[in-house]
Write a structure and sequence with these properties.
Immunoglobulin-like; PKD domain-containing protein; 4 helices; four-stranded mixed sheet; PKD_dom; membrane; transmembrane; alpha+beta; PKD/Chitinase_dom
Length: about 325
């Protein structure tokens, strides 16, 4: 019986000692963590940069009292930082919420606005070409690139989105008046696009010259009211030719191009042909009527190489013309 009592007493003592040991270990651990834990009332940080733009270095500085542990989140999906004063570069423009966790107890948020990157361009790398300040609708515009070491070209003349020419020298005929932008891309470099303005004037209207107005004199020798029928003979018809508006070959070319682009009707030429409104003409070495010539060119882009007008002396009437296109 004494042996059983001794065994029970030893077991109770072991359990008590075990509980005491566990309590002391837990208390020691808690005391250690409490002694080393540094609480914070408020996390504070500042930031500075030469410019808040894409690609610029931004410095962040923690100003939290008693801070010993840091966790930075820059809000741009990049890997954060555990440094006290990290440096960071933003790759895109926009607004970013930067967060700082201090000692796993305090947090601070601030929004940083990043502007787009400033690109410094070399003025010597822009395409070089000459452009007149004004031109008339239908007039042929010729341009040529003078850029050194250029191997490819894209010309745009401000009337279409696609490139109008991909050669070093280009030609273009404007169909509508207005201020146009001529642009040139050389060697496929979109950073350096040459741009110039040209004022396209409307086609001037042809004005008929004012002829001298004369008043017929009455023949005082006869009283026409009393004269017998047939006594007064009709005056002979004047041999003076009908004078029509004069048009230069340059303006005639413009009108033909407008005819081809369906912005002018063939009847607009009748004022220059006098009696024969459908004369024979020579087009690309072949004889044809003016009406047939019109049918062939309507809807096509015209590039006129040569034009010779033949007129009647004194009347300006165009009897025929020779055109190569």
């Amino acid at each position: 019986m004494n042996t059983g009592k001794n065994t029970s007493t030893q077991l109770d003592s072991s359990v008590i000692y075990l509980f005491i040991t566990v309590f002391l270990v837990a208390f020691t651990t808690l005391a250690f963590r409490y002694a080393n834990d540094t609480p914070c009332d408020e996390a504070v940080f500042v930031h500075s940069a030469k410019e808040y733009r894409v690609g610029e270095i931004i410095k962040f500085n923690d100003r939290t009292t008693g801070a010993q542990e840091w966790k930075w989140n820059f809000g741009d999906g990049s890997e954060g930082s555990s440094q006290k004063d990290p440096l960071h570069i933003f790759e895109n423009e926009g607004e970013y919420e930067v967060r700082l966790f201090v000692n796993n107890a305090c947090e601070r948020k601030e929004v940083v606005t990043i502007k787009e990157k400033i690109v410094l361009l070399d003025s010597t790398k822009f395409p070089v070409f000459e452009l007149p300040k004004i031109i008339v609708v239908g007039e042929l515009l010729k341009v040529k690139d003078e850029t050194k070491n250029s191997t490819s070209w894209e010309w745009r003349f401000g009337e279409t989105a696609s490139a109008n020419s991909i050669s070093k020298s280009a030609e273009y005929v404007y169909e509508e008046p207005g201020l146009k932008t001529v642009s040139l891309i050389v060697n496929g470099d979109l950073t350096y696009i040459g741009k110039k303005k040209i004022n396209v004037l409307p086609l001037p209207e042809s004005k008929k010259p004012i002829t001298k107005i004369t008043r017929e004199r009455r023949d005082k020798r006869l009283d026409l009211r009393k004269a017998p029928a047939g006594i007064v003979s009709e005056k002979a018809t004047s041999n003076k030719p009908n004078i029509v508006p004069f048009i230069t070959e340059g303006n005639f070319k413009i009108k033909i191009k407008m005819l081809a682009s369906k912005r002018l009707d063939p009847s607009a030429f009748s004022a220059y042909f006098c009696e024969d409104t459908n004369p024979l003409v020579v087009a690309n070495g072949r004889s044809t009527t003016f009406s047939d010539f019109c049918k062939k060119i309507i809807g096509k882009k015209m590039d006129i190489e040569k034009l010779n007008l033949k007129r009647n002396t004194g009347s300006n009437c165009i009897t025929t013309f020779d055109i190569t296109y």
